[in-house]
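Question thread 4412

I'm putting together a teaching handout and wanted feedback from people who do this every day. The idea is simple: show students a protein as raw sequence, then show them the structure tokens that encode its fold, then repeat with a second protein so they can compare. Below is the first pair exactly as I plan to print it.
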Amino acid sequence: MMKKDFIFFFCFISLLFSLSFAQDRGYGVEVRSTSPELLEIEPGRIVTGSFLVSNKTQGEEEFIEELKLPAGWQEIISDQFPLRLKPEEQRVRVVAFMVPQTCATGRYQIGYSIRSERDYNITDSDSISVVVLPVMKLEILVEGKPEVVIAGDAYGLMLRLVNKGNSKIDLRFKIKSTPTYPVSIKPPVIALEAGKSQVLKVEVETDAKLKKRIKNVLEIKAETEDSSNGVVSVSRTVLVEIIPKVTDEFGRYLILPSQVALMGAGQDGKNGLQAELSGRGSLDEEGKRGIDFLFRGPDIQEISRRGRRDEYRLSYHYDDIQLHFGDGSYSLSPLTQKFCYGRGLEANISPERYGLKVFYAENRWSQPKLRRVGTSLSYQFTKKLNIKGNFLTKRNRSTSSSWSYDEKLYSLESKVELAKTLNLDLELGYCDTEGEQESGELAFRINLDGQLSDQIRYSYENIYAGPNYFGYYNDADYKSSTITFPIYRKLRGNFSYRSYKNNLDIDSTKETANREKSRQASAFYSFPFGTHISLKYEDLIREDCVLPVNYNYKEKTLKLEVAQTFGKFSLRTHVERGEFEDRLLATKNNNLERYSLYLHFRPSYGQTYSLYTRTGHSSFTGSPKKTKTIDISGSWNIKDEICISLNFRRDESGSEGSQKLSNIFSTLNYTLPNNHALVLRSQWSKYEQKQKGEFSFLLMYTIPLRIPVSKKKSIGVLKGKVYDQEKPEKPPIPKVILTANEATAITRENGGYIFPSLEPGTYYLRVDKASIGFNRVTTRKLPVIIEVKGGETITTEIGVVTSCKFSGRVAIFALPSDKKLEDKVSISEDSLFLIGPGKEEKPKNDDLREGRGLGNTLVEITDGEEVLRQLTDEKGRFSFEDIRPGKWKLKIYDYNLPTHHYLEQEEFQLDLKPGEEREITVKVLPRHRPIQIIDEGKIKQENKQN
């Protein structure tokens, strides 16, 4: 079967090759990481990375940066300011972000992308990997919490803090509640010895006016009081479901979440208005059909840099078929088309192990118009092996009536999991160029990452594209490798190598032929008191091989980095010194220096402040001039409805020479009670040599919509009443929490409850015991099994009564005169008895003496519907609590009785009244057999004489 699938796969690829068209060469901008591809960091630290951005267009472009971080990670340097670059200008962009203290150990991908504001098709991206190292000193355990709480009621948590370190720690606690509820913790401060633990009590008050079901998120953080010896902290997030007091009949219709946005933007006295309709959701109850759409216009991006382009797109999926129409990103593979923005259509079909993609796209804003059509086919042989074939071509429309072919691109891609810790990604590409100079060229891509053990990690990447390969990569050779390893305890090392070449044939018609090599070696150590220190050496050579040579220089630098956390402060600073040799001018600078400081301050959960400053010689540009940058930002959460952020940046390396550029960016987010949202974003920019600054803004008002798609046909309704059955009038019981699988309902003042929208199936109806009161129990066995059918309403009433308690003891009884012998023979005063098989003669109760309890005896009670069992403890005791009133049968199993003993009574009939407590003693008796001694004469003894 595998062989047939393999043959079919390659035969079908040849069919696809006859249907397709490809992409344009280049995207006008290049992004390359200048940091090691693999970084290691402890949680709670600041991480820095750098990327080289090059403008490959013929004019000045304004770019928007975006840093893609894992959820919960916080950016230190704002990417809200546009980056202006002249033609062929290069700039090193530094990124910095905070790894959360509670971040799980693992490997994370950090992406950096850049996009022209004018043309979305001018874009590029790169990434680095960050490994979060394991650190564990404190632990917070949840020992008790309610799963569901009625809105307006207060609830409590029981937490246990465990000190897993080796020294005493003075700790303080802080809690953030989302949404904001009054919350307290006792005790607020403790001193915890090494290896010890302590219980914490948390009290939370909820909002009685809650209208919808939510999850109350509690973030509990414990940190050291004194940071002089290094900060130790731990956080724990607890979720508690809060449900409103009244459960309404909702969910009868399938809803498509959507929103309408009205936007106004302005800059330099020009203003424009724009409207947007967007939404995403399912069109059927099974989730097989879905839709995603965005309609926005007219285009106001040229009016204001904060304005947006007009976009119109519609995506639809049905089972394994996905269709896309309009604007969007179209891609195949890294060597063919990693990313392309345009207007077109796409179909993606993925039945079982196969995957088929076909698309057509045409760029929107650049000239001449480029038409691309591409196809790909993939097959998943096993979970560890995937093969994919890609083919695309490009047509350049020089006039409205004529078309011409440019290039055809072929690639074969495979992803292989060689081991659990070893992944290999391969791609081989071929470009066939048509025109006056027909030629063919190869390209390949290798990406390998894994680890040799828990301590040694590595990554390797090699991308090669020949001069006549006009895919996403063109005329370039890029290599990068990194390995991290332990040296001694917390001392770790890192080796990395990176090389980059373009203009591989050194074509003199091109402006540059870059030859770049970088070697880095570093070691870092984490001290017990929280200080992190690293030392890195880098040797960089960068030269241009095309005459006239634009640059040829060499750098050797040594960088010292220190990071420290002081409670609410996180600090990271770099000091870099070295030498710079300009081979063109035959000059040497032994005082190359760069300094930087990153500071993150979070005084409370609603406030965050960041500071970044850098000064020193430029890197990767060969310029002897020093640059200065300062970036200050802050954000404030005012309650849950209002959020304000403000960011200031002053940069000496603007696009117009080295003049100073100042930027201020602010954001206001306000959520109204009806869930409408108002967003105001503004930016002010000022070049030092210009008299006037530039001001731009975007004001957006968003209205959420719940568009009913269709009435649900496959839902059922479960409703009923909870009442007090002990009282003659059977009054209703309000605020009782009921669950049917994952659904929850609460009884109203009339005792009624309703589950308005349940999918057909089997449901287990349960009642929250805490909500019906202490020592109270339902008259029906729980859970109640209910079969829900579409379109039907099921009514179930539940009575509540005071629970009963039944306890007792299984004990061995004997006559007071019995003496226990090793041979199990009992002797009385009047007669001799032998314990053993025989007639069960029950002595009078007055003659019996209670002995030891009989442990490990199985005791069972049943009312015909429910069966409860227990084993007696070492004293023979058993107890059944919170049982329903009614007729119960008690049975004692005799398989664990002592030899030659029997139960006086094996079964008991009980009729328990509400609130009744009854106790019984089960007697285990010995089997007595009397022995009669008959006198038949005397035994004579003869004396023998010798």
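The second pair follows. I'd like the answer to focus on this one:
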Amino acid sequence: MLSSLTPMLEQYHLIKRDHRDAILMFRMGDFYEMFFEDALTASKVLEIALTARGRGTDNEAPMCGVPHHAVDAYIARLISSGHKVAVCDQVEDARQARGLVRREVIRVVSAGTHADPAQMESREPLYIACLCSSAGGLGTAFLDLSTGDFRIAEARGADPWDEVALQMATFRPRELLHPETLDLAALGSALGGDIQRTVLPDWQFGHDAAGRALTDQMGTRSLAGFGCHQMRDGIRAAGALLQHLRATQRSTLGHIDRVTPWVASDHMILDAPTLSTLELTRRLAGPGRDGTLLSVLDQTVTPMGARRLQTWILAPLLRSAPIARRLEAVAELVAAGTARHDLRLLLAPIRDIERLLSRVTLGAANARDLLALRQSFEPLPRIAAMARSFSAELLAGDAGAPAVDAARRPAPVPGPLDALEDLHTLLGSAVADDPPPLLREGGMIRSGYNEELDKLRCIARDGTSYLAALEASERARTGIGTLKVRFNRVFGYYIEVSKTNLHLVPPDYERRQTLVGAERFVTPELKRYEEKVLTAQDRIAELEYDLFIELRDRLAAQAARIRGAADRLADLDVLACLAEVAVARGYVRPQISEDPCTIISEGRHPVVETTSADERFVPNDLECGAGRRILIITGPNMGGKSTYLRQSALITLMAQMGSFVPAASARIGLTDRIFSRIGSSDNLAGGQSTFMVEMQETANILHNATARSLILLDEVGRGTSTFDGLSLAWAVVEHLHDAPGLRGPDRQGARVLFATHYHELTELALSFPDIMNLTVCVQESGNDVVFLRRIEAGAADRSYGIHVARLAGLPRGVLDRAEEILGNLERNEIGRDGLPVLARHTRDASGAERSGSQLALFGQEEEGAASEILSAIRGCSPESMTPLEALALVHRLKQRAGPK
């Protein structure tokens, strides 16, 4: 019962009642304490000592705590362990409180709202998502609280859950908010196992309240200026998300000043399997970004640019005009080597303005954050002047359009960079050069910024000179030459007189302490000065804090300008980065076409060519489009088929994100979607085998591809029997060729690269006009095979799997036996039981092989001759023989074979 607890624990329980799903950090003096179940959990996660309050009494409470100055690091550990944290602080001065100090939760930190730059990966976005449903479809919203990037979307149609899954794959939110009555089972694995889920009451998703929350936040009368006023379900999701953040962050969220519609038709669609197999931002196997397209392209020098580059990679454009603007800017920077270098040098010192701004508007910024902003604003005038010297629109900006329009939406062509010179001047005059990390320590405000503060500092600083002057005047007044004016922490300021001079002490001296050889006194003047000095220290701390809060609020009021400048800096950084990579890697500007085609000369895989240090990467051509839009690619294992497929997709994606590409030349038709069915995976926990996952991904392609899609299929049908797999692969190719939705006019349509070991599929090129065969070239020399990595027209008749097995280290006996069985299969030596003749063994009851149980195909003499002939054939090298030597060999073999 609360009545039996101490007042402090009663207060704790009342606050905890409203935050049952979070660990409550309860401020007590210099520590944040946790009690009861929270203490048991936190002590294990944080590996700190578990103690107890009221030990030995009926109200004993498990307890643990962390220092207040290091709380952010402990919060980060709790968040990474899947917990939420409610931070409860003292909201009144303990020295002025009557009775129990008032405490309130000042913020609730979760996986999607943990926006502390010191604990975050600066190059990664951090989205929190919100999802709701209606009879017409689904509404979604995605917000990066650390930067203010706010997106709103809707999903409708026959299966809106598929579209939501695509959105989840693109934004990869850390936390998902949803109504308590919404069943998320349809999303399945699209959510991922590590996403934190937060349930909100259904009433919080009301359309009217959500709309008001959005317009209040944006400072507008309607959402028409943002282009999302008709997205009814999206507004419900965005409004509920905004209301939740206001409640948990206890802030106005001033840096969230725009909401941008996320429309699938504006961006190339990349589903989860495609994102995974193409390894755009994450490796297929193992953590980290090494070996990804992002790792190759990311030469950005600012955190904002790094996040913007990742956004461009995951959402390539679908309209030729904005793609052309990006390519034009990259081209100009490629040509202007010195200017590009100077621009990158100016950008390099700039800190994470977006996330620093979010701390300012959330009321979490300290003086060091403002110092970082001041330092980041310093090079802006020179960057702005350099940007104006370029001719490309995305570099110079449109002088006739502001960076942010009346509705605070990004302009189609951004305005010139705002150099923020007034804010830099303000911060330069106000913020000290080396401020402390805490707000109550003093030393944050520069001298000269505030007259009252300077006077108080002078009082506190000039105590020594005052004491010296007072000592001299008192010696003259009293005639005591040994009189001393001193200070200590116990007695404060005092005048010390030796006992031999006590008869000279004036009447206004008040005795304070008696020593063995002296007496200590105070005077009314000295007491007034002491009070002035001591109150000055308190007043300095109080005034500095007030001045800092005022300064922080002035910056928050300029959030739209600061955010606009950060946007422009991010774009400039990415464009300069892409130009730098293009020069260093020898990339070329692609030509963007409205026709669905992919024509690449000497294309290269951007990642493989940077990691294959042991051998030179072999470039290959690709022509896929009208009249030859389905390419069936056969050839050996390890020959490079999968690399060829992936590099075609990556070059297409890079072109549409506005990057130069690794090729001698490239003409890329606008592609609405890339499908990639490469590699094997399973979902055993969900009861799905490798083959089931393969078939599901193939079905997704056949159902959702359009005439403008690029489709990569590798080894369809390999997870089942040969005849089943071949039949399925054959039928899939026919569907891709004939389906009306995949065909356009003039023999145009979906471009398909179909890699397979089913050599029978090459016969499709004889019957279907838009199918062409390609093969990976090899060079044989005896039992050795050299993979040339070169793609040419034609079809392969072997896969060289046994050769690859030899390279992998299989035992020699297994390899020889495999060669023997393969030879029988290739000669169709199959018995009535469907097994190769040499694969049948008859064993007796003991398991030993019976002799003479296999019928010989030849007589004993013929078997010997056949063996010699086979050995002679295997030992020859046809590519090195002259015609005459070849005829002589055939003659010898015929003689050895004997008469017919």
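Top answer:
Good format. For the second protein you could add a caption like this: Residues 591-798 form a domain with the Rossmann fold fold (CATH 3.40.50.300). The longest helix spans residues 524-556.
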